[in-house]
Amino acid sequence: MYLKNREIEGPDQLGKGWDTPDINWYPGHMLKAKKELAKQLKRVDVVLEMRDARIPVSSANHDFEELLQQKKRILLFNKTNLADEDTTRKWKAYFKKMDTPSLFVDALNKQNLQEILPLSRKLMQEKWSNFRKRGIRPPSLKLLITGIPNVGKSSLINRLSRRKAAETGPTPGVTKHQDWIKLGKDVELLDTPGILWPKIENREAGLRLTITGAIKDSIVGTSLLSDYLLGILMLKSPEQLLKHYQLTEENLELLPADLLEKIAEKRGCLKSGGAIDHPRAESLVLRDFRAGKLGRLSFDLPETEE
After folding, report:
1. Which of 47, 135, 172, 277 is least enclosed, having the fewest CB within 10 Å?
2. pTM score, whole prediction
């Protein structure tokens, strides 16, 4: 349907074979949240910038760079349980080489969350030491968490606070307000809504952001999303794809749009009369991927790997 050229070297070339529309989703509450975030920064010691471990580059909000350049910052890469393990190891090595404070976490399963506060305190040691030399007791640690929509900020906060302090949901845009949350007697954290940037110029990054849940499916359309995703899965996770939908290896020779029809037949995504219910099948594939049923997959690769 959208695939023009089957001579594709790898998944990073896939987006170049589709007619991809401009992908922009910047509702009013995001602009408001960005302005409020800028006002609060003076009160903040350390910024926790949360990204998706499957798309460490595509999920970086470059609008934050100038805004946060004077702040101590930790990059938190969430959803490692859904990312390819080998690619994640390479990303860890990359950020270590770049001397970037970073942690790869899984908020859902509490993986590595215990390292966040110690690392935050470590970044503040020099400033706190100067306070103590002047006979001043260091103030409480003030953190701010920010990132793209639906990256798992609220789940992380609920794990750190050990209560449901933030609302969670499967679609982007659940958090609309900024709230200070106590994580202990000497730690406070400011929760902020997920923020994108006004114009996503890299269309492939836009597709990756949508497939991983940061942008509403309706902005792009499930037809293009499922087509793009199946093309990548056929290259990077064929065994899991075939196993989950009970397909044969011959099906990997099909175009993604034709493979979708095979999946629809297997899963009963049919209209009355037996015609393929394409929207239903497209949503099924996207839902299965986001639930981790189609294998662990990373879209962005470190520079040396691309």
Report:
1. 135
2. 0.86
Coil vs helix vs strand at 257: helix
Q: Is residue 96 part of a domain?
A: yes
Amino acid sitting at position 283: S
> Which two tokens mark 212?
């991983």
Quote the pLDDT of residue 19: 57
- From 24, 81, 63, 43, select the one nearest 290 (Cα to Cα): 81
Binding residues for GTP are 150-155, 194
66: domain range? 28-191
Rounded distance between C-alpha atoms, residue 46 and residue 90, angstroms = 26
Give the residue ranges of the annotated binding site: 150-155, 194
Same domain, 177 and 278: no
pLDDT tens digits, one per residue of 240-286? 999 999 999 999 999 999 999 999 999 999 999 999 999 999 999 99
Give the CB-side neighbour count of residue 3, counting CA atoms within 13 A.
21
Same domain, residue pair 73 and 89: yes
Q: State which H helix or E strand residue 29 sits in.
A: helix 28-40
Asked whether residue 167 falls in the same domain as residue 261, the answer is: no
Q: Residue type at 154?
A: S
**298: left (phi > 0), else alpha (psi -120 to 50), else beta?**
beta
Q: Is the dihedral of CA 107, 113, 117, 122 positive or negative?
A: negative
Using alpha carbons only, how large is the chain's radius of gyration in Å? Answer: 21
Question: Which residues of the chain have a pLDDT value below 50?
Answer: 1-17, 169
